[in-house]
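Appendix B. One record, verbatim.
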Amino acid sequence: MTNYFDKLLMRNHRILIFGKYGQIGSVFNEYLGRNSNVLQLGRKDIDFLHSVHIPKIVREFNPKYIINTSAYTDVNGAESNPDIANEINCNAVKILAEAAKMNNSTLIHYSTDYVFDGEKKTRYHTSDKPNPINMYGRTKYRGEKKIIESGCNFFIFRISWLVSEFGKNFVKTILTKLNEDSDLSIVDDQIGSPISSNLVAEITCKIIINNINTKKIFHLSTQGEVSWYHFALYISQIAKNINRNIIINPIKTSKYPSRAFRPKNSLFDLSEIETVIKSQMPFWKDDITSIIKKLDFNS
């Protein structure tokens, strides 16, 4: 994977990255963090709840590319804290996009499958009209619209079911629970295709290196489909350091307590991104298995 990051660094572009310690930001930090042309900022450096400082940072560093991995991603928390979620996912993004426009920088931004309601029976295309059913999805969709309205050059990647060795995600949660003493009940009527933050960062580099025309939205996930329940079963099959006595039971979404509604179908049509990168996205197990093994080994 380092090849794509090395190729990007060879271009000598100045790159400004927000969200240094998140799932995607941590990958960029690992592979780009020791280069003078790259400035990576975490929450302690710039808090998106106080986004007034963003334009000054952009102006002074003068990046060719701005990669925004910062977001409020607590789906249930967004229902309880809609103003905070909207400030980070929409208002701060608006300021960032306007700063990118003023500086003639290209903004790379990550959105979500949750901009859709999940009622479609087939895979979602980028041309499908969003209809978010929870506050997290609404704030992320508002952020998308603010980027487009700003007139800046941009790439928006909608990502489904992101997992990594960093931050909070489904693989980490399941591995933790599989080391406890209680049986698990996992939703079996929501489907998607998980993707690793490593692959997301790699695809981002490919897009930059290939000089793709900007002002595009891409759907980014892996091939295949799986429910949360069957994903959890797969994690339990791969992991070794777990309590083998725990039983994983399938349940319906209606039986799972949650403050936020979630889409039942998070599958993306990948034809656009595959055309641009000139290769097929991997099957989800091929992308995710190494993450499970690494987290299991370190548990």
